[in-house]
Amino acid sequence: METPELVAQLESDKWSVRSPAVQALAGREGPEVRRALLGALEDESKIVRFYAWRALVETGDLELVPVLREAAKHEGPLQRRTMRKILARLEAGEVPKPLR
After folding, report:
1. Which residue ranges make up each domain of the chain?
2. What is the spatial distance between Cα 74 and Cα 89, in angstroms, rounded to a whole number?
3. How far is CA 37 from CA 55, 78, 92, in A?
4. Are 48 and 19 in contact (CB under 8 A)?
5. Which class would CATH give 3-91?
6. What are the φ/ψ torsions at residue 97 (nearest 5 degrees)?
7. Could you tell me which of 90, 96, 82 has the C-alpha nearest to residue 50?
8. pTM of structure
9. What is d(CA 17, CA 10) in angstroms, rounded to the nearest whole number?
10. In which region does residue 42 sit, left (phi positive, over 0), alpha (psi from -120 to 50) or beta (all else)?
11. How far apart are the first and last CA of the chain?
12. Of 28, 47, 48, 61, which has the most beta carbons under 10 Å away?
C-alpha cells in the first residue's frame, strides 16, 4: 500500500485499522510519514501509540528523543520503564534494531 493511503487510514475511527497502518509506515521515510507517526503518538489507542513510538525510535533520530520521552510519560509504569531504557540506548549512540 502507498504511503498516502496508509496516512489516510490513520483517520479511521477503528484502532484495528489505524494500528496496521502505523506498523506499515515503520521504516518508511519522508516528512509525511514523520508527521503521521508524531500525530499517532496522541492516538486514543495504546496499541497505536506504541507502534508509532516504536517506529519513531527505530529511525535513530536523536532529535526525536524529547518528544519520545514526553510520549512515554503518558503510558503505564512497565511501558515507561521499558521506553526509558530504549531511549537511553538510543542516546548512547546505539541505533535500535527493529524492535519487532
Report:
1. 3-91
2. 20
3. 8, 22, 23
4. yes
5. mainly alpha
6. -70, 165
7. 82
8. 0.88
9. 7
10. alpha
11. 20
12. 48
- Report the alpha-carbon distance of residue 84 to residue 80 in Å, rounded: 6
Tell me which long-range contacts 79-83 makes (C-beta under 8 A, separation of at least 24): 79/50, 83/53
C-alpha cell at 33: 510519514
Alpha helices in 1-100 (DSSP H): 3-9, 15-25, 31-40, 46-57, 65-72, 77-91
Residue given cell 512497565 in the structure block: 78
Q: Give residue for cell 509506515.
A: 25
Give the cell for residue 40: 499517532
